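Name: Succinyl-CoA--3-ketoacid-CoA transferase
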Amino acid sequence: MPKEASPERVRIAKRAAEEFRSGQVVNLGVGIPTLIPDYLTPAQDVHLQSENGLLGIGPTPEADEIDMDLISASKEPITMAAGASLFDSAFSFSMIRGGHIDVAVMGALQVSEKGELANWAVPGENILGVGGAMDLVSGAKRLIITMTHHTRDGKAKLVRRLTYPSSGLRRANTVITEHAVFTFKDGNMVLIEMHPDLTVDQLRDMTEASFDVSPTLKPLAVD
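Structure predicted for Succinyl-CoA--3-ketoacid-CoA transferase:
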């Protein structure tokens, strides 16, 4: 049973699910990434990893199948896919730090126009802990950021420069919001997909970061 989420967050999760190739090991962060297992197809055959010690996350359990001893790093109830394995956190972080994660899908508080990521602390607010964010930023082979285009109070999350603490030197490879998909080429942010109800000028107005437009710009699926 898929988790309840806004149409915008579901749109982001569905689009992110299209990014994976068969056989990849994919770590899912907290927030929007936890929706992704419900939108993968069997043909994709990806192996979802949770940093608290599971390789082989399955779809969201039905209400009568929830076992709170079986949860993700986000403390969300999960299922185990056929062939899944369990291990301790030390082994899990050895996988992450050892470069065995093909893709990390993470949320973000800010992403700069150069792809720098901030996702663990807001200045002046209590810090719960960085968790595995910095390990994933440095250890995963590819970083996909899934986030809403704005904060709850309407501030842009795609910014010229970070004003929140950075999560590491590595840059994001792809950013997916409810309005657009961006990649990075030669240090510049590039728009590759956009909501069909928007114009490029409208997207620029709602995005603090500057970006180039791909000559093969495609519409973002909104179903």
